[in-house]
Design brief:
Helix Hairpins; 3 domains; coiled coil; about 400 residues; alpha/beta; binds magnesium ion; EC 2.7.13.3; Heat Shock Protein 90; 5-stranded parallel β-sheet; binds adenosine-5'-triphosphate; CheY-like_superfamily; transferase; Rossmann fold; His_kinase_dom
């Protein structure tokens, strides 16, 4: 493209009211590598000037309607053509008496009739070369500016990548310390329990293992194992989501039954928090029941964890537009707009989390599960007024390729 532009011919404008003079000039300059445009009047010249960018204009001074000088003044008056070099072609006795007003503004020269072929050619060459050099400089300037702009853009992209990299590194470090901390707690309890049991056994103290104590131990072990298994499952799910390997296996599922089981289970384990359910019968669709259970468990455990011990409600129903609706509402401290914008991202925890255990993965995973069914999770909350997480699912949970 650059080459094509440099090879473009410089354009020369010749203006004379006599066609024979134009022909003579064209014949004289034809072989000088110029694109020649001829005009027989000032007006015709002005319309050519609107269309083309000229390297030089050769103006006959004496023309009937608009003299060469008048035309030159108009040329100088327009910002587009103000710097066009002008050579007046005049009879020798006319030029000195005329003071051309635009003279100081740009290159002006004179040729006198009868025209000397060599003088014409050399003047035209000097102006044309000047023009071509200027044009090349302008082109280079544009290229430099474009390169500069590209450089700035690359720099901005680099800065952004660097910031993202730093965030990723920070997240990795935080993640490592969170995971170790989360695993340490149940492992610590189990290690302690295990060493107490081993000591008792070594001392032959079988009385220590009363039925009541054994039951408590088994329950504690189950709790610690559940919390570690959940942590590892969450991490595996995140990895599946990140690698686009999350798969869902829809089967005929009664959402009300599924929710009721989970609510009953929670009532047994967390009986201290009032748990209400408003479950419509017959909300049946094609969903991956284990994934949807996981979503409800995540929302419910959040409501119990962050709901400040106040009643929690689980609802199942259908929306007016025929989607299934599963909602978990609590009356806890609520979620600020700032937190709402980020808690669905991985490892993001809001103000309510404090120092409580958790990796900030539950909502991230849940939203992916629901979206994989073609649905979505909506959050409605205000600080101090509790939170309502609403899951909307199309009745047939079409697997979505985006997850
Ligand atoms: N019902 C709620 N009320 C107030 N804040 C909530 C509620 N549910 C979630 N949050 C906020 O959103 C954050 C993200 O929740 P999410 O379930 O993703 O992670 P987590 O509960 O912190 O940890 P994890 O679920 O991985 O154990 C929580 O840390 C909490 O700050
Ligand atoms: Mg959670």
């Amino acid at each position: 493209m650059t080459e094509a532009r440099t090879q473009e011919l410089a354009k020369l404008l010749i203006v004379d009211d006599l066609p024979e003079n134009l022909l003579a000039l064209e014949a004289l300059l034809r072989d000088d590598g110029l694109e020649i445009h001829a005009a027989q009047s000032g007006e015709a010249a002005l319309s050519l000037l609107l269309e083309h960018e000229f390297a030089l204009a050769l103006l006959d001074v004496q023309m009937p309607e608009m003299s060469g000088f008048e035309l030159a003044e108009l040329i100088r008056g327009s910002s587009r053509t103000a710097h066009l070099p002008i050579v007046f072609v005049s009879a020798a006795d006319h030029e000195p008496s005329y003071t051309f007003r635009g003279y100081e503004n740009g290159a002006v020269d004179f040729l006198f009739k009868p025209l000397d072929a060599l003088a014409v050619k050399s003047k035209v060459r000097v102006f044309t070369e000047l023009y071509l050099k200027r044009r090349e400089l302008r082109r280079q300037l544009i290229e430099v500016e474009a390169a500069h702009a590209r450089q700035e853009q690359l720099l901005a992209e680099l800065k952004q990548t660097q910031a993202e990299l730093q965030r990723a590194l920070r997240m990795r470090d935080e993640f490592m310390s969170m995971v170790s901390h989360e695993l340490r707690t149940p492992l610590g309890v189990m290690t302690l329990d295990q060493s107490v049991r081993r000591d008792r056994l070594e001392r032959g103290d079988l009385a220590y293992f009363s039925e009541e104590r054994l039951r408590a131990m088994v329950a504690r072990d189950a709790r610690q194992l559940r919390s570690m298994t959940r942590l590892i499952d969450d991490m595996l799910d995140v990895s599946r989501i990140q690698h686009g390997k999350l798969s869902i296996r829809p089967s005929r599922t009664d959402l009300g039954e599924l929710a009721q089981h989970i609510v009953d289970d929670y009532t047994v384990h967390f009986g201290q928090v009032p748990l209400h359910s408003r479950i419509e019968a017959g909300v049946v669709g094609d969903w991956d029941d284990s994934r949807i259970s996981q979503v409800l468990v995540n929302l419910l455990s959040n409501a119990l964890r962050y709901g400040e011990g106040r009643p929690v409600t689980v609802e199942v129903g259908a929306t007016a537009d025929g989607q299934a609706r599963l909602a978990v509402t609590d009356q806890g401290r609520g979620i600020s707009a700032h937190d709402q914008a980020r808690i669905f991202e991985q490892f993001e925890r809001g103000a309510a989390a404090g120092n409580s255990p958790g990796l900030g993965l539950g909502l991230f995973i849940s939203r992916h599960f629901v979206r994989a069914h073609g649905g979505d999770i909506r959050l409605c909350s205000e600080p101090g007024r509790g939170a309502c997480f609403e899951v909307l699912l199309p009745m047939s949970g079409q697997p979505q390729s985006s997850c």
